[in-house]
Design a protein that fits this description.
This protein is an alpha/beta fold and 295 residues long. It has helices at 2-23, 95-108, 122-130, 143-146, 157-174, 188-195, 201-204, 210-213, 221-246, 257-260, 278-293; strands spanning 59-63, 109-111, 136-140, 179-182, 251-253.
């Protein structure tokens, strides 16, 4: 038993060390910024138009650790073969496998996401995606903008908007006809609620997404206000994703589907109770496929 406890402690410490180094949620200090006022509920995406291509022949994925399938297969590692967007794992049945088939998916899909990325990194990723002239680009970004050490360090909404708009503009310069699927930011407060009683609190307290997950078992008013502030910022980010996407005739927002999805313990990584497991990645692939192929 003692050896097992020492192993679990070492795993938790190693997880926190890597995440604090920038793999998921920033742990750096800095001058806190006053959180921007929360926006109202996300704006629904526009009704699909006849110009939408539901059968693309190539796919580029941009985003953060979720699209890299971090901690889905092993501790502290990306697992791109299990990615919801471009993975080759048939148990996940990624978007690329569903849309392109196994043979084309291997050579006509590209995972350009980076673990730890925030919205400010999206223009650069989108430039790399546009260079490949994909027919479809998937975007899943924003969790790390909210998952900062404290709420005051979250990305301001105006900066989030400017970066997302700039990313779409870069794509349009080089690949004007590419279709874009934009996933909403997951419900971080739901993840806290799911994991806090399932044994995750000890790992989270070592530094994972402090703005939401610090002091996970504290139900006092101050902790609740902090979590509400983060939740409202996520809502504001999703409002931006919906609004900016709606201005682009070749862009589809998921309508909040990822944010509404209720991840449970089986769909979260057994190592950090935060990133999607293989099962969670499969659910994300299904949500994306339904939206992309909708009439």
């Amino acid at each position: 038993m003692r050896g097992r406890r020492r192993f679990r402690t070492a795993v938790a410490a190693a997880t926190a060390a890597l995440l604090c180094a920038g793999a998921l949620a920033g742990c750096s200090s800095g001058t806190p910024e006053r959180p921007a006022p929360a926006r109202s509920a996300p704006v629904p995406s526009p009704t699909p138009t006849s110009s939408w291509n539901a059968s693309p022949s190539s796919l580029a994925a941009v985003g953060d650790s979720i699209t890299r399938a971090f901690d889905a297969c092993s501790l502290l590692s990306d697992c791109p073969e299990a990615s919801w967007a471009t993975g080759t794992d048939t148990a996940v049945n990624s978007l690329a496998l569903r849309l392109l088939g196994p043979e084309k998916a291997a050579g006509r899909s590209w995972n350009l996401a980076r673990t730890g990325a925030r919205m400010a990194d999206l223009p650069g990723q989108m430039t790399a995606a546009a260079a490949r002239k994909p027919e479809l680009v998937t975007v899943m970004m924003g969790a790390n903008d909210a998952c900062r050490p404290t709420p005051g360090l979250m990305t301001p909404v105006a900066e989030f908007r400017a970066s997302f708009a700039a990313a779409l503009a870069r794509l349009r310069t080089a690949a004007p006809e590419a279709r874009v699927y934009v996933a909403s930011v997951p419900d971080l407060k739901h993840l806290w609620s799911t994991g806090r009683t399932g044994g995750a609190a000890g790992v989270w307290d070592l530094g994972i997404c402090g703005a939401m997950l610090a002091d996970a078992t504290d139900l006092g008013p101050e902790a609740e206000r902090r979590r509400t502030t983060v939740s409202e910022r996520v809502d504001a980010y999703n409002g931006v994703l919906a609004e900016v996407c709606a201005k682009d005739e070749h862009c589809r927002y998921d309508g909040g589907a990822v944010h509404r999805f209720r991840f449970d313990g089986a769909q979260l990584s057994p190592w950090d109770w935060f990133h999607p497991s293989r099962d969670g990645q499969a659910r994300l692939a299904e949500l994306a496929y339904r939206r992309i192929t909708a009439e």
